[in-house]
Amino acid sequence: MIYSPLLKPDLLALFCHPQSHAPLALELGDLVTSNGERFPVEDGIPRLLPPQIPFRHRFWAWVYNQTAFAYDWGVAFAWGLKLGGQPIERRTYLEKIKLKPDALVLETAVGTGLNIQQLPAHARYVGLDISFAMLQRCQKNLAGWGREATLVQGDAQWLPFREGVFDAVYHMGGLQFLAEPQRALAEALRVTKPGGHIWMVDEAYSVPRLVRHARGMIPPRGTAPAQTGVEALSALVPPSADDIHAELISNGELYFLSFRKRF
Ligand SMILES: C[S@@+](CC[C@H](N)C(=O)[O-])C[C@H]1O[C@@H](n2cnc3c(N)ncnc32)[C@H](O)[C@@H]1O
Asked: What angle do CA 27, 30, 31 make, to 5 degrees?
């Protein structure tokens, strides 16, 4: 059953090969490169995964494919209770995401679309996720909410979009699953227009793993102690970005990392 609108020609022009960034054309229902590499479109969702992805990514795609049917209920239960901690509320980060009317916005681990549900309908949304089952749930949710988004199966580390096409990019809850999170940040920056914002949010318990990644990227600073807190996440952001800011929010349950593409 197809719930979302079929690919519109203007949105089709956003896509490219996830690794070579070669242009794609629609041919017999598939997206095809000039040298014949084909990516199917199923239920109106282009399947633009790179030919090879890390085992860690395949594992989490499998987990979310198996559990997609219960995700909305599970997250409401887990975030509502947050055993031993404060409940997590989406509005604590969604209120920081400011979108201009008609902005073209990408969510890079869209899941079942629960952020789009609460974000303003005056923007246009593209949602990417590695799990096809999550995207199918997202289609159903969007139809139920009377909302629209273009959905794409892809990997946040190899975005299948041309450079500088989105007004803003945000990501909630998927960075902790990535083999090389800094690659996902660089990809988000690549596909954003100059001056556009990028917002990254995830659960704070995943900060130490990200900081370990970041440490490998921080140049030695003599005897200065290495940063270990949320501020160390800024080392994951490509140095070409502007206005880098990292903070803990939602009673310390989430981190919020924001930056901008330089003009
Ligand atoms: C905790 S859920 C968050 C979903 C949604 N953003 C939300 O706020 O409810 C994590 C999502 O990340 C997706 N994900 C995991 N690894 C990914 C990857 N390498 N690329 C894109 N999405 C990925 C999962 O399939 C899942 O939908």
From this structure: 85
- Over the stretch 161-208, which tens digit does the pLDDT of each residue have? 999 999 999 999 999 999 999 999 999 999 999 999 999 999 998 998
Ligand 1 test: best mutation among 53, 60, 180, most atoms within 8 Å of CB?
Answer: 60
CA–centroid distance, residue 155 to ligand 1 (Å)? 9
How, if at all, do strands 192-203 and 150-153 pair? unpaired
pLDDT (0 to 100) of residue 252: 87
Q: How confident is the model over 125-154, as pLDDT tens digits?
A: 999 999 999 999 999 999 999 999 999 999
Pairing status of strand 38-39 against strand 30-32: antiparallel
**What residue's CA is closest to ligand 1, atom 2?**
173
The third-level CATH classification (topology) of the domain covering 9-216+226-261 is Rossmann fold (3.40.50)
Ranges of each domain in the chain = 9-216+226-261
Atom of ligand 1 nearest to the CA of 134: 27
